[in-house]
Each structure stands twice: as C-alpha cells, then as structure tokens.
Amino acid sequence: MSATDSTLQPGSNDWLAQVQEAILEPERRIIDPHHHLWRKRLGHDYMLEHLWQDTDSGHRIEQTVFIECRAFYDKEASPERQSLGETRAITEIARQSHQQPDKAQINGIVGKIDLTLGEHPDLLKEIIQAHQETAGDLFKGVRFAGARDSRPEDLLIALQALPYLYGRENFRQGLRILGELGLTYDTWHYHHQNVDFCDLAETVTDTTLILDHFGTPLGVGIYRGAGDAIFEQWKDDIRRLSRCPNVIAKLGGLAMPDNGFGWDKRATPPDSDEIVRRQKKYYLHTIECFGPERCMFESNFPVDRLSVSYPVIWNAFKKMVADFSETEKHALFYGTAARTYGLPQS
After folding, report:
1. In terms of CB atoms within 10 Å, which end of the chain has fewer, N or C?
2. From CA 253, how far away is CA 229, in angstroms rounded?
3. Quick check: keyword Hydrolase in the entry (predicted)?
4. Residue 170 · residue 117 · CB < 8 Å
C-alpha cells in the first residue's frame, strides 16, 4: 500500500503511531539540543504542548535547546531586529516549561542574528546584547545558517543564504565577535558546502562552531541516486573538519525529506532497526572522527517528525552506540550538549 492509498497523512500522530517500540534504556538521561517551535509550519503547529507530547513518550528527556526557525518574528521592527520577536516568544515558553519540573525544560535558546553585521561591530554587539537582555542566561548562541543550493525548487526546506556566506569577511568578523562574547555558533548547510565550512573552521578558530545535521547530505532532485558518491566525499569532509578542535558535531537531522530516504512518502514510517541499517554509517564515521566528547545526538523535531516518531528515533540512536562505554554514551546523550551550551549538569 502506498502513502497515497492510505487515509493516514505521513507525519501525523496516527501515521507515526503505526510503529510502536519498547523504550530502550528508559533511565538514560538525555538532553535534546536541537528542536524548533512554531505555528502553522509544514502543515501543523509545534508548540510546548506538542514538544512535551514527544519528550514524554518514554525516553528521559530532561533538557532541550531551542534552535531558531524564523518563527514569531516582529515584523514591525527593523530587519536586523525582527528575530528578537522569536527570542521573546521562546523565552516566555521556556519559562512556562520551568513551571513543570517533571517535564522537559527548555534551558537554551539559539537565536538568529545577521552575523554579516560584523563590519559594524558596535551595531552587532548591541543586537546581541538585546537578545541576551531578553532571554538572560537562556541565550546560548546564534544560528545564521549558510544553506544554499542551486536548485531550491527541488527541496522541501530550501534556505537561500547569501552566496559563499562562509567566505565573507564581514561574516567572519561577526563570528569572531560571537566567540569573544562566549557564545556558540550553530550552522546548517548542504553537503556540497562542507568544504567551505572546513575553510571557515580552519580560519576562525576561537569560536565554538556547531555543525547541524551532518552537513545535510541531500538525496532528492539532482542528487537522487548519487548517494554513494556523496557519501565518499562527505566522509573526507567530516574527517578534515574533525581536525578543528573548535567544531562540535550534532548527530541527527537525517530524516528530513530532503535527505531522500523517502520515509515521508510511505504508508508506514520506519522502525529503529531500519533507521540504524540505512544511516548508521553516518553516525559511526562522525563519532570515530570527532570522538563522543565532541558529538551530541539531536532530534531536529518537528522537521524529522515528517518521517519518524520521537521514541523511535531515540531508540535508533541508542542502538547505534549500544556497544559504547557508559562514559561515551553519557557524552553523546547528555554531557557534550551540557558542556557546549552551558546547561545545568546536576
């Protein structure tokens, strides 16, 4: 039966509920360092109550980090200050999460700030300070993503960043300022931009750079059927990037429709064994290169929710590293995220 024959919409609760699994290692403490919140995106809302439905589904998710997603912008503000609306909204939601200590706490916010304002350092610092004053200790860093592809029409989520963002000196100046202020930099881009990101990491060495989603190996449009060749180049890029001690790798985000695994078009979602079978090589290669102390598992929900449920994806993560030591597992599921984002470690 194809997805078009089914009455269940891929990504819906009923569609995801078709695959039920026992929770592995339910007592393992977890920080989910990468999720979004929004209204009316990808056909649905994803707010605190929806996040909690996922984080309460069996795994011990204690803390989370919100990553910017262009939601809740203040459209009446100047362009460089519109994202303050998102930081304000998420700060209030995070405070709501703290009122129920038995549920996952949003303890970090990574906002969006235009880092090309590095050529105007006083203005950039003023805007960063405004985010910090809004969110207080919750504000951990900035994501000003570099994703750009020549055929955005082929992609479900097609950010079109400035051409060659990573090589722009005004951006690099902004990135250095971020590091001077003790803030992290998250980024998201596509696999063919990994080389540019390596150049950036080798040049800007005093700022913590966090690579989201493995550099997003694409598998749709012109990249369909090229997975083996892309993987071989990707392995070399990850190995080179891992030599930069200021770079941290997030392990997840490979269930986005644009990765091309096709789960979002099926009548039923994958189980954790299928995820492990088809994706383990990406995870183990990255961990081998970076080491567990510089890797952290991420859900990338609700984007990856279009393909897989929350309990299943975390089961898959646990299966991928089942043979690792307890120290290594703690780093991957909790310690690296806590250290990188300055989260509570009690």
Report:
1. C
2. 20
3. yes
4. yes
